[in-house]
Amino acid sequence: MRLLSGGLVVLAAVTLAGCGGPSKYETRRDAVNTYFDRVDRAEAPLAGQSKDIDAAFAKFKIVGNSPAELEQLRSAQKEIAATLRRVQAIAAPAAAAKIRRDLVALLERQQAVADDLVLTTTYVPHLNTILVPLERADTGLTHDLGALNHAGAVKGGKTAPVTLSEALAGFAAAFQRYSDALKPVAAQLDRLTPPLELRDDLLAQRSAVHRSVALSSAIVAALGKKDVKTANADIHTLFTIAPQTSVIGTPQAERKALRAYNARLESITRLQVAINRERARLVRSVG
What we know:
The chain is 75% helix and 0% strand. By secondary structure, it is an all-alpha fold. It folds into 2 domains: 130 residues, no CATH class; 129 residues. The relative contact order is 0.13.
């Protein structure tokens, strides 16, 4: 995926040639020239690194970035942020006010993308670590349920439960263990700050885990009340939403995130075109 290509040097210096007009036009032209000169100097370090930055973003992957690639991304993030601060500090004459607003907005969008790319490189591995207990909990519930016979007794046991309460207790214990295992996962998901492109998936995953906790608790409560019909309905719902608890890291999720990144880049390109158009208009009106 190629990111920020051709959009890093957002505004080259523009020299407006004198044309012998009245002094007020010369003063206006000189003010605009001075502004563009200052912007050019502010952007010079970023322009000097544009090839390296383009290469860093071109190599970006949702997962599997090498240490060298991570360092390149962080370096690009730092330089874009520094350029934004320098450009923001430059006051523009009234004639260049619109270009300044657009230029700052463009750099802000570029910084936001760079920030999210760097965040993604740490967020996804952290999320995967958080989800390990969730995978174990799913496996544990499957094992626990598979170890029970239809009456709720452990298979191979010497005696079977003789009362309905005892029969249901085995199933209730399995869902209670599942609920207990999911609660810490839900709490950690609540504390995560995702990059923009992965936010929707996290929200879906977080909701599914919380709902799984609630359903497991409801199942335990229903079994305690011997309400087998309600317990079975909740079990069916629990198993239906299970796939939503692991939406991150799938090929579909990665493709969706990359499409979202590219959509943001398209907005950057459109703004770049608008800046160039405004610059040309300014040259005509002031030069």
